[in-house]
C-alpha cells in the first residue's frame, strides 16, 4: 500500500488504486439470508458500501446504489452484482441534497416495488493539522454528507419500510476515541451513533431494527483520498492486529444486521477495528 499516491478528490476512486480493496472472499457462501429483499446503499460504488452491496446480492437481495460521480466504480459494482444473478440500480447524485435523497428512494421503489434495507454509508473526510485549518466549506460538506444525508434518506424511506425491515448506519471507531486530525469527521460519526440509538427506540414499536457498524482502519478509496503518501504506508499498523482491514472483512456484518440473524438486536453498534478495545 506504500506505493499509493494521494487522490485529489473526495470520496475517492477505487479503480485507480494500485492495491485494490478486497470486496468479498472467494469462499463466502450465500444462503439466501436476504432472498427477495431490496436494499438501498449510499456510497455503494466502492469500499465498504460496495462490499455490503455484493454480500447482499450473494445473499439474494436486489440492490440500488447511490453514488456521487464515480461512474467507473459504480458500473464495476453493478457488474459484480449482476454476476451474482441480481439486479443493481445506479443512482447518481449528491446526498447533501434532500430532494435528491427523496428521489433516490422513490427511484428504488419504482424499480423494485419495495424497500427493505437502508444502508446509510456515504461519507467524506478532510484531514487537517489544526482546528483552525478546518474550512467552513469542508465543515459543511462533512456534516451535510455524513449525517444530514442519513436523515434525508431515512425520512424518505419511512413510507416504505415495514415490520422486519432494517436500517444500518456506518459510523466509525473515531466516534468512540476521537481523531485529532479528523475532528469534524469524528464528530459526525459520533452523531451517527446517537442517531442510531435514538431512531432505534422510535422504530422498535414498528419492528424496524436500526443498528450500526463502526469500522476501524479499513482500506478503501477514502483513505488515499484523505492522506498523503507518507502516511499511507503506516495506515492501520497501530491497531493490535497490526494491519488495515479489508472491506470483505466488514461486509458480512451488514448481512448480519440486515437479516433475521440479528432479529433481537436494535440500537447496537458492531465494532470491526482490528482489536482496538472501545467502550460503548
From TrEMBL:
Q: What is this protein called?
A: SDR family oxidoreductase
Question: What PROSITE patterns has UniProt attached to this entry?
Answer: ADH_SHORT (PS00061)
| UniProt KW Oxidoreductase keyword | yes
Read off the Pfam families from this record: adh_short_C2
Query: So what family is this one in?
Result: Belongs to the short-chain dehydrogenases/reductases (SDR) family.
> What does the UniProt keyword field contain?
Oxidoreductase
Which SUPFAM superfamilies does the record cross-reference, listed alphabetically? NAD(P)-binding Rossmann-fold domains
Amino acid at each position: 500500500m506504500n506505493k499509493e499516491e494521494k487522490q485529489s478528490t473526495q470520496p475517492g476512486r477505487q479503480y485507480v488504486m494500485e492495491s485494490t480493496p478486497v470486496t468479498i472472499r472467494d469462499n463466502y457462501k450465500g444462503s439466501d439470508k436476504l432472498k427477495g429483499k431490496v436494499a438501498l446503499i449510499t456510497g455503494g460504488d466502492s469500499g465498504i458500501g460496495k462490499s455490503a452491496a455484493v454480500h447482499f446480492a450473494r445473499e439474494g437481495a436486489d440492490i440500488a446504489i447511490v453514488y456521487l460521480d464515480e461512474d467507473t466504480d459504480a458500473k464495476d459494482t453493478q457488474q459484480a452484482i449482476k454476476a451474482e444473478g441480481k439486479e443493481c440500480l445506479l443512482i447518481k447524485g449528491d446526498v447533501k441534497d434532500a430532494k435528491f435523497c427523496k428521489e433516490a428512494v422513490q427511484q428504488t421503489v419504482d424499480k423494485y416495488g419495495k424497500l427493505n434495507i437502508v444502508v446509510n454509508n456515504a461519507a467524506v473526510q478532510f484531514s487537517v493539522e489544526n482546528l483552525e485549518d478546518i474550512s467552513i466549506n469542508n465543515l459543511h460538506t462533512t456534516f451535510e454528507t455524513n449525517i444530514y444525508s442519513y436523515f434525508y434518506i431515512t425520512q424518505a424511506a419511512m413510507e416504505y419500510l415495514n415490520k422486519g425491515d432494517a436500517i444500518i448506519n456506518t459510523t466509525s471507531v473515531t466516534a468512540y476515541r476521537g481523531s485529532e486530525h479528523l475532528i469534524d469527521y469524528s464528530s459526525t460519526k459520533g452523531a451517527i451513533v446517537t442517531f442510531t440509538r435514538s431512531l432505534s427506540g422510535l422504530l422498535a414499536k414498528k419492528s424496524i431494527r436500526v443498528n450500526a457498524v463502526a469500522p476501524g482502519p479499513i482500506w478503501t478509496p477514502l483513505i488515499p483520498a484523505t492522506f498523503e503518501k507518507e502516511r499511507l504506508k503506516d495506515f492501520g499498523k497501530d491497531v493490535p492486529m497490526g494491519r488495515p482491514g479489508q472491506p470483505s472483512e466488514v461486509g458480512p456484518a451488514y448481512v448480519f444486521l440486515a437479516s433475521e440473524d440479528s432479529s433481537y438486536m436494535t440500537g447496537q453498534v458492531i465494532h470491526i477495528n482490528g482489536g482496538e478495545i472501545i467502550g460503548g
